[in-house]
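Lab manual, section 2.4: Encoding a predicted structure.

Procedure: take the sequence of the chain (96 residues), apply the prediction step described in section 2.3, and record the output as structure tokens. A sample record is shown.
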Amino acid sequence: MLTGRWTRQIARSDVRTGLRGGMVRIEVRLDGAVYARFQEKYLAIEECQPQPKQQPPIRTKPTPKRPHLRKTLGLCLDAGSQVVRQAYGDGLHLAG
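Recorded output:
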């Protein structure tokens, strides 16, 4: 006897016009045999193998946003001007 959830597939040779969206009658006989009937004709059906469960994709942390170029460039120039001032002394005047 069929219990629980089960899946069957109609053989390609029995796929015909009107089957999509049509009414298919499933018959489970007392001896446990399963038949499918569409428009008074029996269809060949076979049991489908259960599909393996797929693992959800591993989520990675998003990459951090890059700082604005102007901010980065300003920090570099500030650091560079301090190095230049240390090397040449306070007599050197930098624009900016």
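Check your result against the sample. The longest helix spans residues 69-88.
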